[in-house]
Design goal:
alpha+beta; 39% strand
Length: 88
């Protein structure tokens, strides 16, 4: 399994969720994607892994860790889509 970078994960999320994305902020240590309804996804690197935290107005934070044998990016993208664009 190839471990994604913060940049590659940000790019995939931005493309997949473009119609819901309100703002993208980056600094030297992390990237923050802000969506409608104040939902946020924070991306950062730590201990040779890439981590993502989904924070929703309804449910609070959930952290995913991407590295060899760790969380699957496709499952994360599916979860992120469900969080920021739930079916009505």
């Amino acid at each position: 399994m190839t471990v994604p970078t913060v940049e590659s994960l940000r790019h995939r999320l931005s493309e997949a969720l473009a119609e819901y994305l309100v703002e993208s902020r980056e600094d030297s240590s992390e990237t923050l994607l802000v969506f409608h309804d104040s939902d946020e996804i924070r991306l950062w690197s730590e201990d040779d892994t890439v981590r993502a935290e989904i924070d929703t107005a309804q449910g609070g934070p959930e952290i995913w860790v991407f590295g060899p044998g760790r969380d699957d990016v496709e499952d994360f993208l599916e979860t992120a889509l469900w969080v920021v664009a739930p079916e009505e």
